[in-house]
Design brief:
The structure is a single chain. With 117 residues, the chain is mostly beta strands. The longest helix has 6 residues. It has a single domain, classed as Beta Barrel (Barwin-like endoglucanases). The chain is globular, with a radius of gyration of 14 Å. It starts with a strand and ends in an 11-residue tail after the last strand. It has two helices and eight strands. A hairpin with a 5-residue loop joins β4 and β5. An eight-stranded mixed sheet has the order 2-6-3-5-4-7-1-8.
């Protein structure tokens, strides 16, 4: 049996941009992507702590070290710049392996979206 489990989580990053006139996705600083083990085009769930919105989109690679978190396309209508969000991905795996799997959970500095040192 396989089950779906938490794979990656960026906990509390701040939206720096919202671009409606784009095809869709969330652009994430490449440093944050690597820390959370996210890859370009990976499906993610976005949860907005300010307004309770929850939606699914996919990842685009943002400029490394920029702190960019940009919601693109229709998702831009569900958020505001300055909102704090969680970005989560899931993976399917064998039930027994899931019992010992450790997800990548990253707690960046919410003010800058940079990795804490």
């Amino acid at each position: 049996m396989e089950i779906q489990v938490l794979k990656s989580k960026l906990h509390c990053v701040t939206i720096t941009q919202a671009e409606l006139d784009y095809i869709g996705s969330v652009t994430i600083d490449e440093d944050l992507m690597e820390a959370a083990n996210l890859i370009e085009n990976e499906q993610v769930h976005v949860l907005d702590k300010n307004n309770g919105e929850r939606f699914i989109t996919y990842v685009l690679k943002g400029q490394r070290g920029s702190g960019t978190i940009c919601l693109n396309g229709p998702a831009a209508l569900k958020v505001k710049v300055g909102d704090v969000i969680l970005i989560i991905s899931y993976a399917m795996m064998d039930f027994e392996k899931a019992k010992t799997f450790k997800p990548w959970i990253v707690f960046p500095d919410t003010a800058t979206n940079k990795l804490k040192k």
